[in-house]
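FORM 7B - TANDEM STRUCTURE REPORT

SECTION 1: FIRST PROTEIN
SEQUENCE AND TOKENS:
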Amino acid sequence: MARTKAKRIPPHTGASSAAPKRTRTERNGQLLTKSEVADVLACTESLVEKLTARAQLPHVKLGDKLVRWDRADVDAFIAQQKREGR
């Protein structure tokens, strides 16, 4: 019995007509994870936890343990933290 070789199809290298994918943190109205919020705020996940516990950073609790933050709330928090220079 003779075996035939399968043809190798090269990977697609042409331009794609699809819009470029954006990360979750680039989309408004998106619920973010603690890690993503920390990235947006350029801080540690620990600080995100502290701000949430102090009710300074609004959050959404889904079930008993799952916590998410709305991107619009994170952006509003950033705007509130801006201070005028002297």
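SECTION 2: SECOND PROTEIN
SEQUENCE AND TOKENS:
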Amino acid sequence: MKGEPLPPPLPPASRTVGQVVAEAIALYRSNFAWALALGLPVALADQVAAHAAEAASTAAGLLFRDLSIDFPLNVSVVQSYADAGKPGAPVAPDAGQAEE
């Protein structure tokens, strides 16, 4: 089966789900580094936001010790830099908010 040529692809309107999935898998397999480069920042956004909030909390503890000073830091993951800091801005899918 491995050496047999594949049948020609169907026109886009009549492709089966299996054929679309198989073509997508083949595309990602042949371009794995590019696919990883596209998806990695999105996957790490929540961890970066959580670490930034934790670092702000640690910095506040080191700088102000026993004083009750609030060190505000609001981190949110948005779809566009233009939306950052706007109240009610659409949040990126699957992105939580970390506040400290």
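SECTION 3: OBSERVATIONS ON SECOND PROTEIN
The two ends are 57 Å apart (CA to CA).
Residues 15-99 form one domain.

SECTION 4: SIGNATURE
Preparer initials: ____
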